[in-house]
Every structure is written in C-alpha cells, then in structure tokens.
Design brief:
single chain; mainly alpha; about 140 residues; Arc Repressor Mutant, subunit A; 3 strands; about 70% helix
C-alpha cells in the first residue's frame, strides 16, 4: 500500500512537470501567464468585473490593474463602466483580443491534450474522480495538534 507521504511526493512531482509544460505552452502563444489567464477567463466567462477576474486568476488588485492597463494599451480589452454602479468596471475582450486568445487557447489546448494522451478515456475519468475526491477531503481536513 502506498503511503500518504509517497502519494504527496508523486503528486507534487507530477504537478511540477505539468506546470512546466503548461507555462511553456502559454509562453509559446506570445502571452505571459497573467495576460493569458485574464484573456482566457474573458473568453470563457464573458465580460466580468475586474476584481472578479483577479479572484479567478489569483492576481492581487494591484497586479490585476497593471495587467488590465497593459492589455488595454495593446487593444486586447476595454473597460466598460457598470451602469448600475459607476465605481465598478467590467473588462470586455475587443475583437483583436478575442482573435488572439481564441487562437492562443486552441494551441494551448492542443498541447495539453497531447500531454494527457498517455491516458485512455477511462483512466482520465478515474484520475479526475480521484483528484476531486482527495481535494474535497483535503478542504475539510483538520490537522490534529
């Protein structure tokens, strides 16, 4: 039987290897990780408040503002003031932003698909099921002092 510490070691090493491929794939799109993450969120979720995007892509408020300014300067997003709350701005993809992230996401998705091609459909389903199971357990887990 595998021990908890060995499972953690194997999972950690796999995570690092997958992250390396993920970041290299994103770098191949010509976007940095933060910009790709923001544009991808807008592609899949539609226009969102800037703070909501920051929470989704794990960026601080300051980092999110800097990234939004950079993307707006490149003409990839636009800020639209919320008519119900003038203090809130939603980020929207421009057509050039949509074109860029659509192509970049497709290339990235193909790379990730090649990465997991080592697993057959049943193995993929089982892996997802087991990772969700341990993730849910870890969220509720309490360390005994």
């Amino acid at each position: 039987m595998e021990t908890g510490s060995h499972i953690r070691l194997v999972l950690g090493r796999a995570t690092k290897a997958i992250e390396r491929v993920d970041r290299a794939s994103i770098a191949g799109t010509g976007l940095n990780f933060s910009d790709f993450s923001i544009l991808e969120a807008l592609l899949h979720k539609g226009p969102l408040p800037i703070n909501t995007i920051g929470e989704k892509v794990l960026l601080t408020s300051g980092s999110m503002t800097t990234a939004a300014n950079r993307l707006a300067a490149r003409g990839l997003i636009k800020r639209v003031q919320d008519p119900a709350d003038g203090r809130c701005f939603h980020l929207h993809l421009t057509q050039s932003g949509r074109d860029l992230i659509d192509a970049a996401y497709q290339a990235h998705s193909r790379n990730l698909e090649q990465l997991v091609s080592v697993l057959d459909p049943a193995e993929r389903s089982e892996l997802v099921r087991l990772l969700k199971k341990i993730g849910m357990h870890a969220q509720k887990f309490r360390i005994d002092a």
